Amino acid sequence: MADTPMEIRGRDLSNGLPRNVIVKSSQIMEALSESISKIVDTVKQTLEKTPPELASDLVEKGIYLAGGGALIQNIDKLLSQETNMPVYIANNPLECVVNGTGKTLEDLEKLRTVLINSRRKR
Question: For FRET with 20, which of 8, 61, 70, 121 sits at 20 to 30 Å CA-CA?
């Protein structure tokens, strides 16, 4: 992968004024590497705790990524390599959470028995 430069606009924290800066993709990768490592470790830990009946579904159908993290370039390939499972990015990953929440609210009575109630856990 080429070390692609990109112009970023934001506020300079030293003086509060707007500023443009050129950053390279390698700099972004370095800045995200620790967070990506934590994501990979968390996925692996979650898979280790997954019940066998669900784990077999994951092996067969794969892992689907949703949310903003799914947009990190090549995160699907990295997770697939690290887990030895197929990994896919959901269609419209940024909208998945809000769409799922909307569907849950539409069927709230039907789903009430499977939803976590934080007041019961206290």
Answer: 70
